[in-house]
Amino acid sequence: MNPLSSVGTGELIFILVIALIFLGPERLPEIARSVGKAIRQFRDVLQGMSSEFGEELASMQEVSRDIQESVQAVQDMRNLPKTLVSTAAAPLLEAVDPVKGTMKEAKEAVGAVSLPAVLKTAKSAPDETEFLPRSEPVIESEEGNSHFPDEPRPVIEGDQV
Fold first, then answer.
1. Looking at residue 4, what DSSP letter applies?
2. pTM
3. Max Cα separation, the chain?
4. What is the span of the domain harbouring residue 61?
């Protein structure tokens, strides 16, 4: 805000009359020139500073943009493994779905047949192999004992294994 913006024309004339009375007509033009030069120098300094700060501000904005781009690149690099895994896993997940369905069907099928019912049926049914004759040859040992090939040989005292 300009400090002279609130000073009107009448107030400015009043200030000049007071300055003329105190300074005199001989010194007033010299002081006015000095004040003009000081104001001009002040403006030049302000313009120089604003242009210098403007350049610095522009370079800072450029650096800020570069930093933001670098941060975005790092975030993209952090998300790259997730992207690669999800891209590679999609076909695998599609292949697993039918297997899951088959496994579920198998569990349901196994669950439909309860274990106690199977054991009860197995205990009540006669063992069919008990009534069938053996077709394997009987092996006679030197001691006169006979046994089937898939059965363990009877142990007799003094026998060497």
1. G
2. 0.32
3. 160
4. 10-111
